[in-house]
Amino acid sequence: MLEVNDLKVHLDTDSGIVKAVDGVSFTVEAGKTIGIVGESGSGKSVLAMSLTQLNPQPPAFYPQGEILFEGKNVLKRTKKDLRKIRGNDIAMIFQDPMSSLNPVFNIGDQIKEAIRTHDKKMSRQDVEKKVIELLTDVGIPDPKRRINDYPHQFSGGMRQRVLIAIALACKPKLLIADEPTTALDVTIQAQILELMKDIQKKYGTAIIIITHDLGVVANIADKILVMYAGRIVEEGSVHDIFYRTSMPYTWSLLRSLPRLDIDESERLLTIKGQPPDLIHPPEGCKFNPRCPFVSPECLKMDPPLTERGSNHRAACILSNEQFEEAKQALIIAERKGVHS
Amino acid sequence: MSEPLLQIRDLNVHFPVKEGIFQKTTGHVKAVNGVDLSVNKGETLGIVGESGCGKSTLARTIIGLQKPTSGDILFEGESLPNYSAKQMRALRRDIQMVFQDPFTSLNPRMKVGDTIAAPLKAYKTTNNLEHRVKELMELVGLKPDDHYNRLPHEFSGGQRQRIGIARAIALEPKLIICDEPVSALDVSVQAQVINLLEDLQKQLNLTYVFIAHDLSVIKHIADKVAVMYLGKVMEMSDSLSFYKNAQHPYTNALLSAIPFPDPEKERTRQRIVLRGELPSPADPPSGCVFHTRCQFAREDCKTNTPPLKQKGQNEHYVACFYPIEREQEVKQTKL
Ligand SMILES: Nc1ncnc2c1ncn2[C@@H]1O[C@H](COP(=O)(O)OP(=O)(O)OP(=O)(O)O)[C@@H](O)[C@H]1O
Ligand SMILES: Nc1ncnc2c1ncn2[C@@H]1O[C@H](COP(=O)(O)OP(=O)(O)OP(=O)(O)O)[C@@H](O)[C@H]1O
Ligand code: SF4
Ligand SMILES: [Mg+2]
Ligand SMILES: [Mg+2]
């Protein structure tokens, strides 16, 4: 349904060119959920916004690549086409629902507006009925009364539900959710994740969910893309990423999580250093300054994604076997370090 | 057993809700509503709870930024609300705070070295200021020579949090209140800061009150955990007993809402999904404040308030009439 090929999205800023998305390819299949994970500044939001051309240009520009939605390149569409895609095919929800809702209109009117953009011929009564149906679908109690309320009268979780209702109004084929639960409490996050799964079942919507929470993708994603410094460094099924991890960054990230489900070591394992500066990214593999397995080779060449299994790719000079050996050696060295 | 450094007794912090043109007080937000807690020397007390449950208000009240409505706070056995101005000044040395947002808690125009030096100057604790600042920078993992003259915007979130920590430990405090110190940080950097706080605790014999909304972070760092809901403590226990045998329905709901970073476990586990929304703290439910969202609630929960009561022999306290008793539950499912 959606195919992104070798996409670059760069940003022209006062301090230089930010290579926010720097050669990214992936596909989205109908009815499936893709999780995009990565640290702050790794380019997740810029990538998501580029899919419907929402990045302001300037500073954004597209030096390379294509985004094919149902076979046609989004980058080559007119403004009018793009508005149609956004109103009919691809919907987006963001971390902060307040900023995407209009504070001066009530919730009912905002959903009606979204329905009308999608379907101009629907009768007034049908529109009203549809509004109630959507609010019921997203779990707003007492929707008949709540349609007259304004955004500030809703809690954060309820606002996110309203935004999902607005997104669903156009029966999108693809829903892009950029950190939809990051600002919410965990109990509300659990509700919203359940809701997204129910909606996918009912409407068959494909979902791209962006998050930095590996627990969230473990819960909801079919396929995962791990981003680091504007690149995809590992891609595979949720099982590949969690149980057959093939890239040192993904592996280190998983190890550094404090966990509820296992009794981990006394000390948390860490990744040294900071995420890189995207104006002057490191030479070679972008992860090399922080990688526990770095070798001189890694400073010379930026490894491309290579096959690690069916539909599983990782960007590292180490083969799966070499990576396995290196991991064992590191774990043994760590144990010795602890005991000496 | 070590003695309590900090004791909080029946603490209430209420904010008036004002409405209309005459700003008439129409009610009160009971941000902290009858809280009892104690922290022993060298220990870490973790406080968790959802947004708005009163964690920051509690923190601000402990360091004296917020006046309590009633109740008592004892620091080293002495009551804070009765402190003299002189004692207060000493107290400002002994209790320090680290904030969530390293971006707004630092003065953007002040060089890092000067930021860390400020409390040292105010209390004239050293005659070799620069040396001490560099020592502190070293201690928190900053590069003294490189970083001394730089401004906060030149640092990443994790490094800024290190600056905040250096400032907090400068006067060798006894207690540090950390209000969500790692919530704004990336996972890879979060682990670094947690380790740093743990190392400093050992080296400097610090006591922490560590506020977070993430129970997995608390599990790692805390010796004792308290769960708050609408200004009240719902459950409090030593960490081990807490995570093995959480008894309050709210604690169990919180624990089960956190997604495990393990797809098999995550997709097969049993979940308590909380219904409904957090009630307004200006108009909390009667009886047990949690009863509107509790699946175990019975009639008496709507009218009577369950006190925080000790369960079993451990230092494990639960404010619930019908706590979940895990052993029993396990036995029943086996039958
Ligand atoms: N409008 C802009 N102007 C300049 N730089 C920008 C702009 N938007 C994003 N960037 C930069 O592009 C890079 C990628 O940003 P992006 O917002 O995509 O990160 P992200 O992965 O979504 O991070 P987060 O988890 O913090 O949301 C960052 O270095 C960011 O500073
Ligand atoms: N100065 C104030 N005046 C009036 N109400 C206040 C004030 N400070 C806090 N409150 C209210 O008291 C309650 C508790 O707030 P507090 O900031 O302590 O919560 P918190 O647990 O720290 O939440 P978060 O996780 O969002 O930081 C909230 O309802 C808040 O709106
Ligand atoms: S290429 Fe080298 S530096 Fe990059 S992840 Fe692999 S081992 Fe580490
Ligand atoms: Mg983002
Ligand atoms: Mg707070």
Automatic annotation (TrEMBL), chain B:
The keyword Transferase does not apply. Keywords: ATP-binding, Nucleotide-binding, Transport. It holds the Pfam family oligo_HPY. GO terms for molecular function: ATP binding; ATP hydrolysis activity. NCBIfam families: oligo_HPY, PRK11308.1. PANTHER family: D,D-DIPEPTIDE TRANSPORT ATP-BINDING PROTEIN DDPF-RELATED, TRANSPORT ATP-BINDING PROTEIN. This is Dipeptide ABC transporter ATP-binding protein.
